[in-house]
Amino acid sequence: xxxxxxxxxxxxxxxxxxxxxxxxxxxxxxxxxxxxxxxxxxxxxxxxxxxxxxxxxxxxxxxxxxxxxxxxxxxxxxxxxxxxxxxxxxxxxxxxxxxxxxxxxxxxxxxxxxxxxxxxxxxxxxxxxxxxxxxxxxxxxxxxxxxxxxxxxxxxxxxxxxxxxxxxxxxxxxxxxxxxxxxxxxxxxxxxxxxxxxxxxxxxxxxxxxxxxxxxxxxxxxxxxxxxxxxxxxxxxxxxxxxxxxxxxxxxxxxxxxxxxxxxxxxxxxxxxxxxxxxxxxxxxxxxxxxxxxxxxxxxxxxxxxxxxxxxxxxxxxxxxxxxxxxxxxxxxxxxxxxxxxxxxxxxxxxxxxxxxxxxxxxxxxxxxxxxxxxxxxxxxxxxxxxxxxxxxxxxxxxxxxxxxxxxxxxxxxxxxxxxxxxxxxxxxxxxxxxxxxxxxxxxxxxxxxxxxxxxxxxxxxxxxxxxxxxxxxxxxxxxxxxxxxxxxxxxxxxxxxxxxxxxxxxxxxxxxxxxxxxxxxxxxxxxxxxxxxxxxxxxxxxxxxxxxxxxxxxxxxxxxxxxxxxxxxxxxxxxxxxxxxxxxxxxxxxxxxxxxxxxxxxxxxxxxxxxxxxxxxxxxxxxxxxxxxxxxxxxxxxxxxxxxxxxxxxxxxxxxxxxxxxxxxxxxxxxxxxxxxxxxxxxxx
Length: 686
What we know:
With 686 residues, the protein is of the alpha+beta class. It folds into three domains: 3-146, no CATH class; 153-280 and 554-668, GROEL, domain 1 (Orthogonal Bundle), CATH 1.10.560.10; 330-525, 3-Layer(bba) Sandwich (GroEL), CATH 3.50.7.10. Helix content is 46%, strand content 18%. The protein contains 23 helices and 26 strands. The strands form eight sheets. Strands 11, 12, 13, 15, 17, 18, 19, 20 and 21 form a nine-stranded mixed β-sheet that branches. A four-stranded antiparallel β-sheet has the order 4-5-7-6. A hairpin with a 4-residue loop joins strand 6 (131-136) and strand 7. It is globular, with a radius of gyration of 30 Å.
């Protein structure tokens, strides 16, 4: 480097703070002068190890109005040319677009607007047809504004929402019941035959933006029910469709939307209490098999597999579903522990389809201390990177700086790591951390014992044969070498439980025993074709979720019969009501509760009105067995539903229906029609 360049660098280094690179640990990037013909004399920061690169003068994104940083950085940082930063910029742009609509971009001296606009349009989540630009030279600002909106009001708004609801519900409703049909999902790469309501709902996107908003509301119902109960999504969609239909009809005849919503919610709250009182506890393996079979579309094979798995691991165990390497389906039992905390950031996810983190043979760091700086865990990260093994960190907390560093290096492939905050408080939390450390064969790095994270060695890390982390749970499968220690710890906790006189302490000790002794059942699902495999795995997942829901809250008669019997309770619930709008809201719920049984009967080729009338005059346990084609005691026949599935379907359906009925306007992006192309005429330049 020439003396002139050296003096320039020295001058710039006094005026600007060098940005941190992406190495572990991060270092200050070196300031250099470009000698290329394209950018002669231009200053930039670079790291030779991690390929970090940034021009000295680059743009900083700021929120318009309050001037808070959307993308934060020290002087000289900003739009970097490496892929990791572009990905981060894209996420910041999408988040800012959702919150603000308008963005202000502060441009420093020599930023290339062309490069920035490429990032903005191609990676930022904006489309060129919906973005307007304005460059204010005097203030050196560049504004990006969201495109025009289409606004729909009153009845037109609600009618368009209902049209979207109907289109999605029509596609999903054909799958309801034991004789429901399949739906084919096709895209440019694959073809799937599906009988799962939430999967079908998520795949639907309508061309009309307002109608699509209605469909998205129903997708929200399906997702909420699926997350809370694991099954019953199709029934929930049928309920909310009927509530919206009858509710909009009532509004047309002059009912007040707010009064309707109030009456609907009051009715459902009372029905939930009745439902909980009427539920029956799961009695044994036969009930488990019946619940699983019904949830899987009357697939007795799936029911038998689930019953076998739960019989081996108990109600405190965990079931995971994987793909078999053969066409056979089998159950493998593994010991493991499940804790009620998930990953701290979705950036750690390794399986995008399931939104889970999945590690094999992972090292495990267990501590009750907060990790404040990257330097504390750098030796452990370097060691796991050398061994090419993932690292699970279970800690009290972790600073934002450490979290961001782990995410950046995970995206670059430097380390494979995930962070989980330990649940609980006080002594219960420390006891759980001790159990995790024992199960993985590692040391519990407790601050009370004077053990520092920065002084920890790789020998103090535990090892887990398999780790699965969702957004709210973590499952750890222990290494076989720790079986003896686990048994000894369980025996010790059982002695403490026998000697305990405190009900609270006894409950906590029982939970620890369940976590340590609860095994993990791995169901290896096999099939002859990919299409059959996908369908069978979805059925198995629904059956698993429904089974655990049934063991938690009990069972009720299936086939839509429970909803019909609940509808008969509405008269006594509303006997003292005087508000006509609230009474109309209760009547909306009454009519909606009849819809699932009608549709199950219709899909089986039977008149739904006749089925409903017979069930209404029968006892609580009596309903229609659509598979056998007769009325009978559904509990004795094994036609049962988990109480939680029935409850969640009703609760989330009335929640979304109330939102739609009280909606007065909707704003959606207005699609701009492309300008017609100018025909090319030889010799003439348009």
